[in-house]
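quick one before i forget lol
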Amino acid sequence: MTIVQAKITTVIVCAAVILGMLGVTWWHMETTRQKIFESNALTAARSYADTLVSLRAYYTREVISRLPEDSVTVTQHYRETTHAVPLPATLTIQLAEEIGRKSEGFSARLYSNYPFPWREETSQQDEFEKRAIQRLYDNPDEPYYEFEKSPNGGRLRYAAADIMQPACLACHNSNPQSPKRDWEVGDLVGVLEISMPMRVSLKTITDTYDYLILFFIIGGVIILATVIWVMDKK
């Protein structure tokens, strides 16, 4: 092998090693970035769900249970009724809609296999929701979620169990419009689903990783150029 051939071989080997390292680095960083995206989205969805569940429980326990039944009506039609307040589920749905108007791409909804008549149209379930409600029947303590991929960054769908609480039991079992009247405390009433885009709060993370990848590429080019320069001097 001539000196020229040896130099060319050395440069090719160095270039291959650098490109391989850059490829592995890029793959590892992309994988790590995706995990961070998913973890961040899960944390946010869990926080939303916990807040809505806690608010609903507090409203039921501290407001609904204290209202005088002979003068205040608890109904989904509270806006059209004098001296009325919303049902806990109605309050949760409307609060979720209000949050959605202020948070682009965010939505939350309640659905059940036993919806009240006035909610039957909005309780139709897609394939994810069917899987979620079945999983939560089997294991109500473990939220069910899926990441849906799309060109704009993807979406997280997060489903948490809606459990029958003591303060809700009497209403669900005595209401003549209730589709099920043998509820027990702890039963799975339905599902609270949070749906949100993966891009939420991720711009800083994305920018940081993009800069790191660019830094590695520039570093690789500089190293390769240095190798070529040193070999050319020999």
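fyi The chain is about 55% helix and 15% strand.
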